[in-house]
Amino acid sequence: MIRQTLRSLFRAPGLAIAAIATLALGVAFTTTMFSVVDAVLLKPLPFRDADRVVVVSDVNTKSGERDQVSAPNFQDLADATKTLQAPSLWITQPITIAGTGAAERVESLRVSPSIFTAFGVSPLIGRAFRDDDRAVVVLSHGHWQSRFGSDPAVIGKALRLEGVSHTIVGVLPPDFRFPDAEIALWQPLVLKDFEKKFRGKRMFQAVARVAPGATIEQANAEVRTIASTLAKQFPDNTDWLTDARPIEQSFVRNPRPLLLLFGAALLVLILACANVANLLLARAAATRSDMEIRAALGATRVNIIRHYFTEAAVLAIAGTAAGVLLAARMIDLVTAIRPPGLPTWNQLTLDWRALVAASVALVLVTLIAGVVPALNASRDVAGHAIRGRFGVAGERGGRLRRTLTAAQVALAVVLLVCAVLLVRSMLAVQDVDTGFDKRGRVAATLVLPDKLYNGQKEVALFTTFLDRMRSLPGVVAVGGVTALPLNRAGVDYAVEIYVDGFTPGQREPEADFRLTTPDYFRAMGIPLVAGRELQPTDDARAPRVAIVNETFARRYAAGREAVGLNVSLYCTRCDRFRIVGVVRDTRHKALDGPITPEIYLPYTQIPHGELTFVVRTSGDPMLIASAMRRELLRLDPDLALSNIATLDDIVARSIDDRRFNARLLAAFSICALLLAAVGLWGSLSFSLGQRRQEIAVRVALGASRTNVWRLVLTEAATPVLAGLAIGVCGAAVATVWLRAMMFGVTAGDPLTYVVVVATFGAIVLVVATAGFRRLATDDVSRLLADA
User: Fold this and answer.
1) How far is Cα 774 from Cα 767, in angstroms, rounded to an integer?
2) Diameter of the chain measured on Cα atoms
3) What are the Cα distances from residue 191, in Å, to 72, 118, 134, 194, 435?
4) How far is CA 463 from the centre of its chain?
5) For 327, how many CA atoms within 13 A lie in the half-sphere containing its CB?
6) Cα separation of 250 and 26, whole Å?
C-alpha cells in the first residue's frame, strides 16, 4: 500500500511538494510555539521538588498591589513559621568586578545562605555559603565559563568586588539560572543598617520551601496569620498582608500573550491541513476513474478510504519531518528576538517534549487532510457511480473544495485582524511622545562602591567625571540622574511627600524620587516649563531646592503656582525643599503607562553612589561611549560603566514585549494569508479545469470576454466572501483576548477591518486575473474539439 502510494505521488510531484511545504510551515510554527509555551509555562523549574518552593510577598490590602518584603518583617516571619523551611531573602545588585582582567560591571545576587537549601541546589564545584561567610562569592556557570574559561582551579582565587577582596568558594551547575541567565555571581546577604531598621522598606524578594507534611495552602494560611500579628504591632505594616504562592506563578504574570500566539500557530496548522485536504480532494477528483476501476475489480469502500488515508499519512510524515527541521531554525530566531526577563526561556530547546507535540500534529494533519478526500472519494466510487464530469459527484467535490477554501479564508481573516491590531498598537506606542529628545544621545551607568566612596567623595568623583566628559570633542551637554526614563538600570522608587497647602485624601501623596546633576534636563532635551533649572551652586551649603514635573504641579499645587512652594519627603518634619522649577512630563516607566508625579533634587545636596549619565553629542554617540570608558579608567581603574546604550535603543527596548508579540503574530498571519491565497488559486484552477468544456461552449455560443471574466471572478469570490463573513465574526470574538494588549486602537477598529477586507479583495482580483489569463491562452476551437 505504501509503495503504491509513493509511486502515485511521484507521478504528481508538484502536488507532493506543495503539500509537504505547506504542512512543514504549519508544523514548524506549531512546534516552535509549543516549545515556547512549554519552556515558559509547562516545564518544571530546575530545582529539586520545585512544586514545594514558594515565593513570599507582601500585598497591599487597599490596592491589591503585590510588593517585595522588608528584612525585619521577614526575619520575624522566619522565626515564627512552622510550615516553611529555609526561608531566604535575595536581592539583585549590580557590582563591579576587578582583579582578573579589565573591570566589569555585572549583575549579582545578595542571598541568605539558606537559599541553596530552599532551592535544593548544590554547587557544581566548591561549596555553598555558610552562615558566618562574609567576603566570599559563588559564580554562576555562565560567568565561570566566560571570565575564567571553566577553570576548575578557580576555587580559592580572589576577586575584587567594589574594591574589596572576595574569595571564590563555588560554581553553580549549568541548569541553575535563577532568576535569569544575566546573574554572574552570588554573595552572602549581610544586612546593612537601614535594611535592618525600616519595616516599610520592602526591597527584598523572599523564597522558602514548604516543610514535609505541610501543604502550600497551610503555609499560606500560617504566613497570613503571622503577618496579621505584625500588622497590629507595627504601623508600617498597616494595610499589608503577606502570602506564599508557588514560585512558578512569579515568573509569568500574564500567560495570555503566549497562549494567544500558540493558538495562532494552531490556526496556521489547521489552515495548512485544509490546504492539503483541498489539494488531495482535487487529486481524488482527477483520479476518480482509477478508483472506479479498482472498485469494479473488487476494492471495497474501506480499501478506498485506506488508500487516501495512506496518501495523507505519507505527506503528513514528510511534512512533519521537514517542519521539525524548520522548527529548529525558528527556535533559534525566536530566542534571538525574545523579550528579556523570563528565566525559563533559557530552557527553550527542541527536545523530546517538542517532538511529542510534533507527533500529535502529525496525527492531526493526517486526520484533517485525509478524512475529507477519503470519505468523498469512497462515496463516489463505492457504488461505481460513474456520473461524468458534470454529475453529482463532481458537484459535491466542488462544494467541498469551496467550503475548505472558505474555511481557510476565515482562519486567515481572524489571524490577520489580530495581527493588524497588534502591529497598529505597537506603532501607536512607538509614536507616543516620550517628553525628551532621544536623538544623538548615549547613556551609561556608574556605581561607586560605598566602602570607598560616600558622601562628598561621591560628589567629587561624579563632578570630576562630568567635567572630563564635557571636554570630550563633539559633546554638547552632559547630565546624570539616578533613574533614566524607560531604563531598567538605576534607583527608582516613590516617596511620600508633603506639600505646603495641599490637603491629602485617603492616601498619602507620592512622587517618584530622582537625584540629578546640573544640565541633566538640557542633556535629555526636557524643556523647562517654569522657574529655573538646577545650578552648580545648588550644593550642600545652599538652600535645599527641587524641580518637579508638570503632573506634580497640577496634582499637588492645587491651582497655585508650583514654583516657590515647599515640599518635604517622607515626613512633615523632614527636610523641606523649595520648588524652583517645573519641567515637562516624561514617560518614565512605560510608553503606554500613566505619567506619575516626579520630584528632582540636586545630587550635591543628597549624595548618592549611582548615577546614569546622558551625553548629548553632535557625532556618533557610541564613539563617545569609548571615550567615556577611557576617562573613567584614568580616574579609577577599579570602576566600570554599565548599561551603555543610545537613548534610541533604550526606548526601543522598552517595548520589546509588544514587538515580540506583534512580530510573531504578523509572521503567522502572513503565512496564513499566503496559504489562503494558494488554496484559493488551487481551488480555482481545478474548478476552471473541470469547466473548460463548459466555458468553451459558452464562448462558441457568443459569450464575451467580459462574460467569461465575470464567471471566473464569481468562482473566485464566492468562497472568499463566505470566508470573510465567517472570519470577521470570528475576529470579533478573538479580539476580546487582545484588549489588554492593545494601545491607541479599539478591538472593533473599522480601519483594521477595511484593510483586511481590501487585502482579500486584492487577492481575489489577482487570482481571478491569473485564472482568466490561463483560460484566455486556450484556443476555443481546441476546447470544443475536446468536448
Assistant:
1) 11
2) 108
3) 10, 19, 11, 8, 38
4) 39
5) 29
6) 32
Distances (CA, A) of 488 to 337, 464, 656: 18, 26, 13
Asked if residues 175 and 204 have their Cβ atoms less than 8 Å apart, the reply is no
- Rounded to whole angstroms, the Cα distance separating 354 from 333 reads 16
> What nine digits make up the cell of 564?
516657590
Contact 31, 327 (CB under 8 A): yes
Q: How far apart are CA 615 and CA 619, in angstroms?
A: 11
Task: Name the DSSP letter for residue 98.
Answer: E
List the chain domain ranges: 1-48+257-386, 63-238, 397-433+655-787, 453-637
Residue 391's pLDDT is: 43
Q: What grid cell was written down for 607?
A: 549624595
Contact of 679 with 764, CB cutoff 8 Å: no
The answer, as to whether pTM is greater than 0.90, is: no
Q: Which three cell numbers stand for residue 547?
A: 524641580
Please report, as a single letter, which amino acid is at residue 338: R
Q: Which one, of 586, 508, 521, 510, lies nearest residue 547 by Cα?
A: 521
List, in order, residues 6 or more apart from 151 with CB less than 8 Å away.
144
Q: What are phi and psi of 133, to 5 degrees?
A: -70, 145
Asked if the peptide bond before residue 179 counts as cis, ω within 30 degrees of 0, the response is: yes
Angstrom distances, CA of residue 190 to CA of 77, 122, 162, 267: 18, 21, 15, 53
- Residues 80, 402: Cα–Cα separation, whole Å: 70
- Residue 35, CA distances (Å) to 87, 247, 267, 345 in order: 33, 21, 16, 10
Query: CA torsion sign, 673 to 679 to 684 to 685?
Result: positive
Amino acid (one-letter) located at 177 = R
Q: Is the dihedral of CA 177, 181, 186, 189 positive or negative?
A: negative
Residue 196 exposure: Cα atoms within 13 Å on the Cβ side: 5
pLDDT-flagged residues of the chain (< 70)? 1-15, 99-101, 251-254, 282-304, 340-347, 372-398, 451-452, 505-507, 776-787
How far apart, in Å, are the Cα atoms of 39 and each of 263, 351, 457, 463, 755? 16, 10, 47, 47, 35
For helices 71-80 and 216-233, angle between their N-to-C axes, nearest 10 degrees = 120
